[in-house]
Amino acid sequence: MTENRISSPIPATAAGMCQLPCPMPDIVTLIGGKWKLIILQILIFNGTQRFGELKRQLDGVTQTMLTNQLRALERDGLVTRQIYAEVPPRVEYSATPLAQDLESVFYAMRDWWKRNQPPFG
């Protein structure tokens, strides 16, 4: 009798953490990339920010990239944008409750870094 086996890209040790269908691709789409996690960290821990305030805290980000990342985070329900009818217009960005729920993830990443930082430099 021939056994049909599907090769899984998930290591055996991670298989229990990520049952198929695995949510990781969706999670990476929501918060992955160079800037999204940093933007979320700023908004979660420092509160509401204006566009210029965010840009100053993100060394190397272009205005276009920041705009695109904020739009994606807003579209996915992680950031809200408040526009004030002023001249010039004032726009503020805040973390939504869904994004605030990631706070423990940031603490877990920080703790992991503290435990493993020496091998990284």
Automatic annotation (TrEMBL):
GO terms for molecular function: DNA binding. Residues 22-121 form the HTH hxlR-type domain. Keywords: DNA-binding, Transcription, Transcription regulation. It holds the Pfam family HxlR. It comes from the Bacteria. The keyword Metal-binding does not apply. PROSITE patterns: HTH_HXLR (PS51118). Signal peptide: none annotated. This is Putative HTH-type transcriptional regulator YybR. It comes from Pseudovibrio axinellae. The lineage of its organism: Bacteria, Pseudomonadati, Pseudomonadota, Alphaproteobacteria, Hyphomicrobiales.
